[in-house]
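Minutes, project huddle
Topic: does the predicted pose make sense with 2-acetamido-2-deoxy-beta-D-glucopyranose bound?
PN asked that the exact inputs be recorded in the minutes so nobody has to dig through chat later. Recorded below.
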Amino acid sequence: MAAFSSSKAIVVGLALFVLFMGSSRAQLSIDFYSESCPWLFPTVESVVQSAISKEARMGASLLRLFFHDCFVNGCDGSILLDDTPSFTGEKRAAPNFNSVRGFDVVDKIKSAVENICPSVVSCADILAITARDSVYILGGPVWDVKLGRRDARTASQAAANNSIPPPTSNLNALISSFNAVGLSTKDMVALSGSHTIGQARCTNFRARIYNETNIDTSFVQMRKRNCPSATGSGDNNLAPLDLQTPTTFDNNYYKNLVSRRGLLHSDQQLFNGGSTDSIVTTYNNNPSTFNSDFVTGMIKMGDIKPLTGSNGEIRKNCRRVN
Ligand code: HEM
Ligand SMILES: *[C@@H]1O[C@H](CO)[C@@H](O)[C@H](O)[C@H]1NC(C)=O
Ligand SMILES: *[C@@H]1O[C@H](CO)[C@@H](O)[C@H](O)[C@H]1NC(C)=O
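Predicted holo structure (C-alpha cells), as shared on screen:
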C-alpha cells in the first residue's frame, strides 16, 4: 500500500513537472535574445525609423501587420508567407488583399537581423518589435516586448477570412471576435485606438458615409469628395482613419468617435449608445489611461498562441518556410 501510493506520488510529481516545464517553455520573455542577439533592438529600430521617415504611414501599416498576424492562429509570422503555385497563404485573404502593406520593410529588417545573428530571431518576433517601435516613433507609449515566438510552417487563408473582423461588424461581433482570441471588451476598445494612425480605402467606409445617420454632417461632406457612391469607382481612394493627426499616435481617435466622426462603421460602433461608450469617454478624457490600456492590450495580443520550444522554425526569409 505504501509502495503503491509513493509510486503514485512519483507519477503525479512527474506529471506536474512535465506540465510545469511545458508551460515555462511556452512563456515569452523580454530578455529572450539578450545573449543570442544583443543588438537586436537597435537594429530593428533603425530600419523602422528610416522607413517611417520616408513615409509616416508605414508605422501604421507595420502595426496592422502584427494584428493581422496574431488574430489568425496566433502570432506566428504566417501573414508573411508568400503564395506559391502549390501554397495558398494569407496575403490574398479578404481582409489583407490590396490592403496590408509593409512586407518590403519587414524584409529589410529581417536581413539586417540575419546579418548580425543568423537564424536566431523569428519573423513573428520581428513583427512584435516592429509594431512596438512604430507606435513609439509616432508618439505613442513604449513597452517591453515579450519575445520567443517561432515561425509557422503553414498559413490559413480561411482562418484569415474568418478571424479578422470586417469593418461592417457591429459591436457584438467586435466583442466576440476579440473574445475568441482571449481579449476583453476593454482590450478591443483600447486596441481599436490604433486607428489614430493610418488610412482606409473608400470601399471600406462608403456605406457608412452614404447610408448611416450616426455621423457628423460636415465630416460626411468632406469624405464624400474623395469617395464616390458607386461601387467600383474610387474603391482604393484613401482617407485618414483619424482626420486630425493621422501620423501621430494619440487619443484623437476617441475624440472623433465622441463627435461622430468615426470613419469605419466598426469604429463608430464603439460609441453609439452601447456598453462601450463609457470606455470611449474615459479614453477621450484621459490619454494616459488609454496609453496604459493600449499597452496591456498589445502585450495580451502578442501572447496569442505563440509557437515556442521546438514547434515551428526560425525562418531565414520571412516570405517562405525554410
Ligand atoms: C476592432 C476591429 C477592427 C476592424 C474592423 C479594423 C478594420 C480596419 C480596416 C477596414 C482598415 C482599413 C483597411 C483598408 O481600407 O485597406 C484598417 C486599418 C488599420 N487598422 Fe484596423 N481594424 C480593427 C482593429 C485594429 C487593431 C486591433 C489594430 C492594431 C492593433 C488595427 C490597426 C490598424 C491600422 C494601424 C490601420 C491603418 C493601416 C495603414 O494605413 O496601412 N486595427 N483597420
Ligand atoms: C477568402 O476570401 C477571398 C476573398 O474574398 C476568397 O477569394 C477566398 O476564396 C477565401 N478563401 C477561403 C479559403 O475561404
Ligand atoms: C445604401 O442603402 C441602400 C438601401 O439599402 C442600398 O441600395 C445602397 O446600395 C446603399 N449604398 C451604399 C453606398 O452602401
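Observations noted during the meeting:
- Residues 206-207, 210-211, 229 surround 2-acetamido-2-deoxy-beta-D-glucopyranose (ligand 3) (CB under 6 Å).
- The radius of gyration is 21 Å.
No decisions taken; revisit at the next huddle.
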